[in-house]
Amino acid sequence: MTNEELTKPQANEPEQDISVLDGLKSWKIFIPIIIGLGVTVWMFMREYEPGMFDMIQFSGWTIFWFFVSALAMATRDIGYMARIRILSDRDISWRSAFRIIMLWEFASAVSPSAVGGTSVALFFVNREGINMGRSTGIVMVTSFLDELFFALVFPLVILLIGYANVFGVDDGLISDFAKLAWIGYGLKLGYILLLSYGLFVNPQGFKWLLNQLFRLPVLRRWKAKAESTGDDIVNTSIYFRHWPFKRWIKAFIATSASWLARYWVANALIVAFFGIHQLGWFDHFIVFGKQLAMWIMMLVAPTPGGAGFAEYIFKEFLGAFIPMGAGIALALAWRLVSYYPYLIMGALLLPKWVSEIKLGKKNKK
Asked: Which residues, 6 or more positions from 346, have their beta carbon under 8 angstroms from its beta carbon?
């Protein structure tokens, strides 16, 4: 595939089977909601004591800081939309970018954290007018930039904030939270190293290695998928390895802005419910660092969108900064801001989007 073929939309590209969306149904929003609320109720019943919510304050400032937390999530989405426009050389409009990101987040929210929505994201991009080869490249580089952010920022945060401040200690041994975080980080680092080698160093060699690896009996059932992935990496490399450095910087800035905005959500909610003096200035950075570690830990969560696991780990991991007993309520508020809106938005957008696809296919016949 040449540069021109990768960068120009192909109007007559074969239609992709709508079955790629079989795993995405609007009713699936109820699975993570039931799991998340179920764990929240379980924690509440286990720990309830009279007066446990007395520390929660409600005032005009509560509404203001709750709005700030929602604004942080909106900033995160705008950063994602800006990035996908950069990666598409602005061939994707802001409206299309909004639809792609909302559907992508919905797919992630109803899929196990380790799976995410990347597997169907290229379908979303393709349906907004970008040919399949180029869509694959955009989604692959999006994943690369996300993992690059974690690979660079996580050790930097540990260095600046302090290991003990982020994870604490457990009788002098590495805590269970730290184990989960380092396992997640190891997976991310391994992924980014392999992908970097395939995209920028030796794409043909990476493709050959992948094909050889998936000839092993234990992996042979995924051989066709591995061959397709190898082709995708080679084709993506053709264009993006020669991208101007200035564009890489812009795309990484958009990526960083998205994730950094997301990590300040908990800070705003703590201030909203417990007052501006609940956290000292350095405490804010510790909470920020803990949220970064939490998102890495959630990589190993088996439930859709980390439902249940996320609420539990939020309460336990940030417990030192939340008045006794109020962690459950704050964990629920955190998910209401950072997770449930994507379930609702996706459930609203998906049926109409699928109908448009089916109508378009019918009109072409």
From this structure: 24, 26, 29, 102, 103, 105, 106, 107, 109, 110
% of residues, the chain, pLDDT over 70: 80
Those residues whose C-beta lies under 8 Å from the C-beta of residue 356, and which sit 6 or more positions away, are none
For residues 16 and 71, the model is more confident at 71
Helix ranges (DSSP H) in 215-339: 223-240, 245-263, 265-274, 281-297, 309-317, 327-338
The number of CA neighbours under 13 Å toward the Cβ of 55 is 18
Reduce the DSSP state of residue 112 to 3 states and report it.
strand
- Sign of the Cα torsion 217, 228, 83, 357 reads negative
Q: What are the tens digits of pLDDT across the range 293-321?
A: 888 888 777 777 777 778 788 888 887 78
Phi, psi of 187 (to 5 degrees): -65, -45
Residue 56 zone, left/alpha/beta (φ > 0; ψ -120 to 50; rest): beta
Distance CA 277, CA 271 (A): 8
More confident residue, 363 or 69: 69
Using an 8 Å Cβ cutoff, are 340 and 35 in contact? no
